[in-house]
């Protein structure tokens, strides 16, 4: 059966299970011909999923809340890392002195900017420092947080540690990492595997086999990390480098072969977003996006 999965951004190591599943034949073993779709815009995959034009999509769990739709069904969080906001060390004093700071981000809108600001606010609140919302400017840019920070930005929002954290180490940058542990919020630096709900209920066996193939791929990656890295380089044609090697190694530790569709695991994210008034989504409605 021909199935389609749209990614949240460009093809990258976070999508390794799907590349491994293709190259090792795990999807083929279940009679699945999988088409990988790289979207033009971040929300394109979710829009296509809602419309029923594709069957599967990956995206951060926050969008299950921000873009909630009755057609969303999360099969679970297959990837999770540390993430949030990164700041240059000297930015701490700028904030402390009440100066305006610029945060580079690939997505700038009222919702994402509110979340980014709240992470910054909570981080500094621990030290008794108040951060005025008007003093935090979110500058829409590409994905290259470290590049834009080297060019002058004070920080980056929507970073994943397995990328920017590793890149910062290679660049010798000493940064402040504002993540769930240091800033006190429910971690959503992760990727869920979404399926169109109508398609799932009409094709449960197919979807369950797809799920098995992804999990078998993750188990293979856990047991054969070097081969998984070779598959990534072969599929993408990307030139092998010490930086990408380290990003791949860091990313390989972020996958969960036992992910499952559980409402209670994602509930803290919903509660965090309700706490900062960016959603009024109710528990009972949110539950419909999970199998249990």
UniProtKB/TrEMBL annotation:
The lineage of its organism: Bacteria, Pseudomonadati, Campylobacterota, Epsilonproteobacteria, Campylobacterales. Responsible for the formation of the pyrimidine heterocycle in the thiamine biosynthesis pathway. Catalyzes the formation of hydroxymethylpyrimidine phosphate (HMP-P) from histidine and pyridoxal phosphate (PLP). The protein uses PLP and the active site histidine to form HMP-P, generating an inactive enzyme. The enzyme can only undergo a single turnover, which suggests it is a suicide enzyme. The keyword Transcription regulation does not apply. Gene3D superfamilies: Periplasmic binding protein-like II. Belongs to the NMT1/THI5 family. Residues 12-228 form the SsuA/THI5-like domain. InterPro entries: NMT1/THI5, SsuA/THI5. One of its GO terms (biological process) is thiamine biosynthetic process. This is Thiamine pyrimidine synthase. Homodimer. Pathway: Cofactor biosynthesis; thiamine diphosphate biosynthesis. One of its GO terms (molecular function) is metal ion binding. Coiled coil: none annotated. Keywords: Iron, Metal-binding, Pyridoxal phosphate, Thiamine biosynthesis, Transferase. It catalyses: N(6)-(pyridoxal phosphate)-L-lysyl-[4-amino-5-hydroxymethyl-2-methylpyrimidine phosphate synthase] + L-histidyl-[4-amino-5-hydroxymethyl-2-methylpyrimidine phosphate synthase] + 2 Fe(3+) + 4 H2O = L-lysyl-[4-amino-5-hydroxymethyl-2-methylpyrimidine phosphate synthase] + (2S)-2-amino-5-hydroxy-4-oxopentanoyl-[4-amino-5-hydroxymethyl-2-methylpyrimidine phosphate synthase] + 4-amino-2-methyl-5-(phosphooxymethyl)pyrimidine + 3-oxopropanoate + 2 Fe(2+) + 2 H(+).
């Amino acid at each position: 059966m021909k199935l389609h999965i749209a990614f949240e951004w460009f093809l990258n190591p976070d999508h390794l299970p799907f590349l491994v599943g293709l190259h090792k034949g795990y999807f083929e073993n279940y009679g699945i011909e999988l088409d990988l779709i790289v979207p033009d815009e971040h929300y394109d995959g979710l829009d296509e999923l809602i419309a029923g034009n594709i069957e599967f999509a990956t995206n951060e769990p926050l969008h299950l809340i921000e873009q909630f739709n009755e057609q969303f069904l999360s099969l679970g969080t297959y990837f999770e890392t540390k993430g949030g906001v990164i700041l240059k060390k000297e930015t701490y004093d700028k904030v402390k002195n009440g100066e305006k700071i610029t945060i580079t981000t690939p997505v700038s809108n009222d919702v994402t900017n509110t979340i980014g600001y709240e992470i910054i606010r909570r981080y500094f609140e621990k030290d008794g420092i108040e951060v005025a919302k008007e003093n935090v400017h979110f500058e829409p840019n590409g994905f290259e947080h470290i590049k834009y920070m080297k060019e002058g930005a004070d920080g980056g929002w929507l970073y994943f540690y397995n990328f920017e954290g590793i890149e910062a180490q290679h660049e010798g940058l000493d940064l402040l990492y504002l993540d769930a542990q240091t800033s006190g919020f429910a971690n959503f630096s992760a990727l869920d595997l979404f399926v169109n709900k109508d398609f799932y209920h009409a094709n449960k066996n197919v979807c369950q086999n797809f799920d098995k193939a992804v999990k078998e791929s993750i188990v293979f990656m856990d047991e054969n990390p070097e081969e998984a890295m070779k598959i990534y380089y072969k599929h993408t044609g990307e030139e092998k480098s010490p930086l990408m090697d380290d990003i791949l190694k860091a990313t390989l530790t972020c996958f969960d072969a036992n992910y499952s569709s559980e409402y209670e695991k994602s509930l803290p994210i919903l509660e965090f977003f309700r706490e900062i008034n960016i959603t009024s989504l109710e528990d009972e409605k949110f539950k419909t996006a999970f199998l249990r």
